[in-house]
Amino acid sequence: MAIQIPTELLDGCVLGLLTRGDYYGYTLTQEVRQQIPISESTLYPVLRRLKKNGWLTTYDEPFQGRNRRYYQLTASGRTRLTEIQTDWVAFQPAITTLLGGHTHE
């Protein structure tokens, strides 16, 4: 896929995954990569920004002598996800129409 994912949509993808539970960075990247091609170097700055904005928190858990940093959705992160989902519902059919596709309205 050569299309670059807009920042807001990538934020929404990460926040949406975190509604399923807490993830550590590597598994979060793998989950996103199952759907869209991104690199770990793409995702970690997104995670830092989402944390800085208060949309997620982190905690560390020991694993095989190392710590894994887990990411957890906050209440304001859930609110932000709802905003992104609302924007997407309006945005997606417009892009589909402009690309010559059909919408299911």
Automatic annotation (TrEMBL):
Coiled coil: none
Boundaries of every Transcription regulator PadR N-terminal domain copy: 14-83
Positions of transmembrane segments: none
InterPro entries per record: Metal_resp_DNA-bind_regulator, Tscrpt_reg_PadR_N, WH-like_DNA-bd_sf, WH_DNA-bd_sf
Identification of the protein by name: Transcriptional regulator, PadR family
